[in-house]
Amino acid sequence: MRLRNIPGSREAIAESQYVIHEEETRAGSWHEIFGNDHPIYIEIGMGKGQFLMELARRNPDINYVGIEKYSSVLIRALEKMEEEETPLPNICFIRMDAEDIVKVFAKHEVDRIYLNFSDPWPKDRHARRRLTSHEFLDRYDQFLAADGRLEFKTDNQDLFTFSLEEIETSDRWHLNASTRDLHHDPSMNEGNIMTEYEEKFSSKGNPICKLIASR
Ligand code: SAM
């Protein structure tokens, strides 16, 4: 996914009306940023943003924040936003590494967290970098609303097994539902919006895994 050195991407991100800068000063002010009290849903590692933009189109009463580490990827989402016939007022983006996410949202400020096709970090010594590791679950615990939930999709069986174990061995988190074949699970697949990676991997025949967790 990472596209290196796209000329002008940093400048375009700096100037975009859709990108929130100085994100570490924004904790507690997200409802003011959107100008309403609607729930706030975030996607961490949103890539080019197809999934989150479709959610934003379908659900004008929910605010969406997309988080992406790389400028060279975020710029693709911004290009898509420019193609929208009617600007979407309920979505914005942050370019940041989610390692620092607890600085960006206040306690209970976020109502849902989406993780889609997160980087697997296959080496054991990198396990804490996985976005479903205990380290990240502890971070999410600090800003997710009490009745908020986490939804995770992947085609990576090892990462999915790891994620189930992290949730099941956590004192705070509870597994609500899971499937290893989302597209053939009528109840979990209802209303499913495909991400870019989901389209790519399911077209190759890979089954898609999904879990939903809460506290
Ligand atoms: N969610 C998209 C999808 O399903 O099509 C993109 C999946 S892609 C494999 C993973 C994305 O997560 C990449 O764009 C990567 O740059 C981003 N990412 C990985 N680690 C991240 C982190 N710690 N903070 C923010 N973004 C991250």
| Main sheet specs | 7 strands, mixed
Strand residue percentage = 15-25%
Going across the biggest sheet, name each strand in turn: 3-2-1-4-5-7-6
Shape: globular
Number of DSSP helical runs: 8
Mean pLDDT: 96
Rg from C-alpha positions?
17 Å
Hetero compounds: S-adenosylmethionine
Unreliable stretches: none
How many β-strand stretches? 7
Structural class: alpha/beta
Portion in helices = 25-40%
Distance between the termini: 32 Å
Order of helices and strands: HHEHEHEEHEHEHHE
Which tags fit this structure?
seven-stranded mixed beta sheet; alpha/beta; 8 helices; about 30% helix; binds S-adenosylmethionine
Short description:
This protein is α/β, with parallel strands linked by helices and 215 residues long. 31% of the residues lie in helices and 21% in strands. The protein has a seven-stranded mixed β-sheet with strand order 3-2-1-4-5-7-6, with helices on both faces.
Description of the structure:
It is a single chain. The chain is α/β, with parallel strands linked by helices and 215 residues long. 31% of the residues lie in helices and 21% in strands. It contains eight helices and seven strands, in the order ααβαβαββαβαβααβ. The chain has helices at 9-15, 30-34, 50-58, 71-83, 134-141, 157-168, 186-189, 196-203, and strands at 40-44, 63-68, 91-95, 110-116, 144-154, 174-179, 209-214. The protein has a seven-stranded mixed sheet with strand order 3-2-1-4-5-7-6, sandwiched between helices. β2 (63-68), α4 (71-83) and β3 form a beta-alpha-beta unit. The radius of gyration is 17 Å and the shape is globular. The mean pLDDT is 96. The structure holds S-adenosylmethionine. The site of S-adenosylmethionine has 22 residues, from β2 and α8.
